[in-house]
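step=encode ok
step=design start
structure_in=
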């Protein structure tokens, strides 16, 4: 019985090696992991000069192929700081909903700030992956 197992073992393991090599070749041209995820940030929602709510946002900064990912991931606190400063300077408040932020405005602002931090040609896009309000707030009256 042991002899059969020893003979069958190379036959089982041998076909796995070419498959593993094929998987490596498939992933060569792809930009896997070319992003920086920011830690969740609470951004204020201000209406008529009053703090109405906070919205917690999860943001991903997508990088170009020529970006040095480990170096830029070390700059994550700088990206987060720039987002917090911009969010307090001019809040990303939606006039129609105090439970969400203006994602287009946030993306454009952080794209500009991240390019200043990382350097030109390294930031592809900025995406808000998730947002959740601290509390539900009534929709503003027209």
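sequence_out=
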């Amino acid at each position: 019985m042991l002899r059969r197992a020893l003979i069958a073992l190379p036959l089982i393991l041998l076909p796995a090696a070419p498959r593993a090599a094929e998987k490596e070749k498939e992933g060569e041209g792809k930009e896997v992991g070319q992003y920086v995820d920011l830690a969740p940030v609470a951004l204020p929602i201000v209406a008529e000069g009053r703090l109405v709510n906070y919205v917690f946002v999860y943001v991903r900064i997508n990088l170009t192929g020529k970006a040095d990912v480990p170096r830029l991931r070390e700059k994550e606190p700088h990206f987060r700081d720039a987002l917090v400063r911009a969010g307090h300077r001019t809040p990303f408040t939606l006039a129609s909903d105090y439970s969400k932020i203006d994602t287009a405005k946030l993306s454009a602002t952080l794209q500009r700030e991240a390019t200043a931090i990382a350097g030109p040609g390294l930031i592809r896009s900025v995406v808000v992956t998730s947002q959740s309000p601290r509390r539900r707030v009534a929709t503003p009256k027209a």
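step=design ok
step=annotate ok -> Strands lie at 35-37, 41-47, 50-63, 93-94, 97-101, 123-133.
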